[in-house]
Amino acid sequence: MVLVYLSMIEGPEDRNKFEIVYQQYKSLMYYVAYRILREERDAEDAVHNAFVRIAEHIDKISEPVCPKTRAFVVLIVERTAINEYNHQRRRRGLPLEEEALGAAGAWAPEGPEEGDAVARAIAALPDRDRELILLKHWQGFSDREIAGLLGMKPGAVSRALQRAKEKLRERLREEGNRGMKDALDELLDRYAPDAGAMWLAAETPDIVPEHPFSSKFRRRMERLIRRQGRSPAVTAALRCARRAAAYALVLLTLSFSCLMTVDASFREQMLRVVVEVLQEFTEFRYTSDLPANGQPGEVRFTYLPEGMEEQYREQDAIEFYVYYESPDGDCMDLSQIAVSDGTSVSIGLDTENADVTYFTVRGCEAMKIVKSLDHTIHWTEGDSIYTLYGTVPMEELEKVAEGIQIVG
Q: What CATH number is given to the structural domain containing 315?
């Protein structure tokens, strides 16, 4: 599952760093999100969305396992969960909540020194204000970066920070700290780490139980590694992955692998693919010089295994993705990615210790991967790449693939 996020990260050092962060904090992040949302699926969605934001800023993390990084991931998943909680309330026409969701104010320790007073005041701020100050003065993010992390506009971050500092000054005055000898920003830079430690100690337990993430969560993560690689940075990330384990490199040129007779204009369309077989997975890197021919998502299923019901779908200008589950726990998903001029798509498939064979589906050459209960069919058709995955028998999956209708 971690490969999903690693596909967004450029360079092996950052990839290794992120893998440590992922393994170290994923259950803690679920604990924080579930405490706010009180629903497993919503909490898992919040964890996923938080990891996407963390991956975008992995270069800001110097030490994966340390109080500063622990605080960072908790800050991000907490804000992601609070935003989702308020989004749900807004849909139901209920008033928004903020302070009731956090533990601010009740647990800051007493201390006579200037540093204790400042740290105590920061830790006792409302959630949003504390997040802004800790991200700015402890984590070292710019206003623009904070905006992306918290889902705000850059200008709003600057204004909100000023309001948070005014609240902090007022709190310090109320506590009798009128004679602070340094400017407030200097005090924040100096004592924000202590405030973060206070808040984190009260906000999260030292040990949380491991959460068994759902199959939907795992498949969403696995899907992202298959579809990432739309830019040189993403392509480079996959190319760097486990480079020492690479043992074969094959350069191929495909005319969509189709075996059917087609007209000349269609035959002129070509996908170029580099196939690299690594120790733990096989990577396919697709490019094309031709404009897109249609939009992703223009597909229809004429056959589905018994009991399969759609659970989730998403679509953008390049990819269509749909996920199914059955009452007995089987799952299935389809990813369709359109490749056109200027698009580079990298797809990683788990082929380690798997049975890999080739056959034809819809008149096109396809790869069939069987690994324990996991079954995958991968092929190209038109200007699109298709990856069909399922825990149903391969015979069923083949029927699904053969029955796909491309609309338009």
A: 3.30.200.100
